[in-house]
């Protein structure tokens, strides 16, 4: 599917970094709205799909329904609204093939650095073949980073005392071994996030017993794997119209749940507790294992499709322990309470390592860009960095809802620049003393560990990173692209080619 490196153009209008769900979506909107622009997708791995190809652990799935996590332009046809990784990957491959996006992907191509020249109004991008180590240079007018937010080559693995003494096997979900047989084995899953909640019921199908060992509880809710209303809407209105209506319904539902949790956290906590009590065996210590010290949606809620996590506990195939690890032993784990957990396999579902902007080294006119010194503009560009865009999805709703809006706005920006004869777009903060705060108002550990390496956000538009879809629809889809703090200018070459009476004026 990749372009032949010997004949592929080296000067393009847009370079998209990453062939996952964001990069494929960006390519669709770009070729739909600007079919005359040349582009390529650079993918460091040997296949498309990003997260959905990388993660191979048992039960891998999305926590979000695919009517909203999928694309607005590509109906989700499967009966499972909460779908496993294989189905999502097949959907992405089908999308890339159906829209001819796969022909623009250059695999095994890792972006190392990008240098912006204001004189030339172009990026010079150094790439490396991840299979051979060969380096080469590309140029582009726009660099569009759709590489996600975490490192693909390593997961987060905290230090555990005595780890080297353990005679069993230790695995991280991000690098699941193909030869790992957990049948009949005693498995301990360390962690309480979405990955652990996914792994436990999947492993419990054949393992001897699975223990989820958590230091801090999470909110876990049973949700239907299917969507009968969506199925009914498609049956009545047809696939495309029904998909659009189901998508709208689920957007409203996500917003309602998030709004309830944020406005009435005590009420939300009581509701979740009642649901947990109903899903668990009678007398189960709910307040010990399902009572987080934070409010709902301070961190992402975990979903259990059709209550699979709770079913595994009810039938005795899985159990929970809330404690901290003192040390690994030869045969398992000794906890701070003195309790010992025997294990044949320990799974460290301990999270991700955040890597902003794909780990690309950025320079603007010879000056290094320190991401921690930049401010996010409309959640898609960086202050002081021309012709650079990125996608970061929602943390409180389906990731792709935000990505779609950002891609639409990016295409609108290109149209505005074409109309005005502009070559350069650069966000500039008007107030040097504007109050700043972290890029994401999200308390997950993997975000907190990387705060100093991420851009900041301001206290007002357009420097706020919005978490509300309805507000973003207005900002990114309906309001004008022009903004006093977005400088649009022609390139120096264009200015010199025209007289001052005919050259466009910067806005």
Automatic annotation (TrEMBL):
Residues 497-507 have a biased composition (Polar residues). Its cofactor is FAD. SUPFAM superfamilies: FAD/NAD(P)-binding domain (SSF51905). Keywords: FAD, Flavoprotein, Monooxygenase, NADP, Oxidoreductase. It comes from the Bacteria. Residues 486-507 are annotated as: Disordered. Gene3D superfamilies: FAD/NAD(P)-binding domain. GO terms for molecular function: flavin adenine dinucleotide binding; N,N-dimethylaniline monooxygenase activity; NADP binding. Pfam families: FMO-like, NAD_binding_8. Belongs to the FAD-binding monooxygenase family. This is NAD(P)-binding protein.
